[in-house]
Design goal:
Elements (H helix, E strand, L loop, with lengths): L14 H7 L6 E3 L12 H8 L6 E6 L8 E5 L15 E5 L7 H8 L9 E9 L13 E16 L22 E5 L4 E4 L4 E17 L4 H20 L20 H16 L3 H10 L20 E4 L5 E3 L3 E4 L2 E4 L2 H13 L1 E3 H5 L3 H13 L2 E3 L2
Antiparallel strand pairs: 1-8, 2-3, 2-4, 4-5, 5-9, 6-7, 6-8, 6-9, 10-14, 10-15, 11-12, 12-13
Helix pairs in contact: 4-5, 4-6
The structure holds succinic acid (SIN) and cobalt (II) ion.
Amino acid sequence: MNIDQPLQLLGGLSPSTFMRRHWQKKPLVIRQAIPGLTAPLDRAELFDLAAQDDVPSRLVIQTPATPLKPWRLKQGPFGRKNLPALKQAGWTLLVQGVDLHDARVRALRDQFRFVPDARLDDVMVSYASDGGGVGPHFDSYDVFLLQAQGQRRWRIGRQKNLDLQPGMPLKILANFAPEQEFVLNAGDMLYLPPRYAHDGVALGECMTYSIGFRSPAAGELAQEILQRMAEQACDEAGDTLYRDPAQAAQTQCAKIPEGLVAFAREALEKSLRDPLALHRALGEYLSEPKAQVWFEGGQNHGDPDQGVRLDRRTQMLYDEAHIFINGESFLARGQDAKLMRALADQHYLSAAQLKKLSAGARELLDQWLDDGWLQAEL
Ligand code: SIN
Ligand code: CO
C-alpha cells in the first residue's frame, strides 16, 4: 500500500495525512468512501451468522412504552424466530467478528491495513429496523462506521461529561450534547476517535459496518505480559531451591530472612534480564486468536509448493527478532525472517518465495498448513 497516495476511502486523504490529522484526534465524514457500495452480506446472510453459536451477537430493542426500561439487551445466538419482526421499529442486531467468517468482509477490512494489524479488532455488522440504534454512547475504540445499506442519521459531539444513565443494560450517555448531525448513505463513512460521543439512528432499514480498532489498556497488557513471563521464569528457573547453610539461629521467629528476599529478587530479576522476554510475551498475546476461533487441522487440499495463504482467522505479526502466529513465537533471522515477514504483511508466499525458505522454516510452514493456519494454493 502506498501510504502517500490519496484514497477515495479516506475522502481523498492519503493514509499518512489521515493518520496525522484525524487518527485518535478528530472525526472525519467521508462521502462515498466506497462509491456504489452494496452490502457484502445481505440481511439473510447476516441473520444466518447471528444464529451460529461461535459468532457473538447482541440484540438491542428500544421499548419506549416502558419509560423506566427504554432499552432491552439480549445475547445471541438468535434463530430467525428469536428476532423481532422486520416491520417492528426500533431494534438492532449487532454481529461481531464478521471478518472471520466472510472473505468479502475480510477484504473490506484489509483496506484499512494502513493501521497496524496489532490494533485491529474486528468488523461488527449491525442491522437495524427503522428507528433502530444503540443510543447515545462512546466507545473506547477508534472506529470507521461504514454505511453499507440504507441511511443512518448520526449525531456526534466532543462530550466532556461521560456520565452514563444508571441501571441501563447498555452504555447510554446521561447528558448527550451533540454538536453535529448528518445522514450517511450507502458507501459513506464516519471515522470516530475513542471516547467521541455518538448516536446513530436508522432511517428505514439499514446496515452499518464498524471496523473497530482496539486500544489495549496498560493494566491489561501488564497482566498478560507478566503472566507469560512468569510461566517462562518458572520453566527456566525450574526447581532451584533456596539454600541457607549460613542461616544463624534467630530469636525473631516470624521474621522473613533477608536471604530469602534476596533469593526472590534474583529469581525475578533473572527473568527481567532477558532482553527479548517482553517482546516475546507481547507478541504472543497480541497474536492470540479470538476466543471463538478454532482451527481444524488436516484439511489442506491444495499444493503447498504452488503458494500458501494465511487462513482468514490467522493472526500473524512480527518484531525485530520474532515471528508470531496465533499466540506462538519463533525466533527468525536472515532470509527466513524476510520471507516470514512477507507472509505476515502480504498474507501470501509465492512458489518462488517458498523455495527460498530454509528446511527448518519450511517444516514450520508445513506444520501450520497441517494445523489449518495456512491454506495451500489450489
Ligand atoms: C451500530 O452499528 O448500530 C452501532 C455502531 C456504534 O455506534 O458504535
Ligand atoms: Co459506538
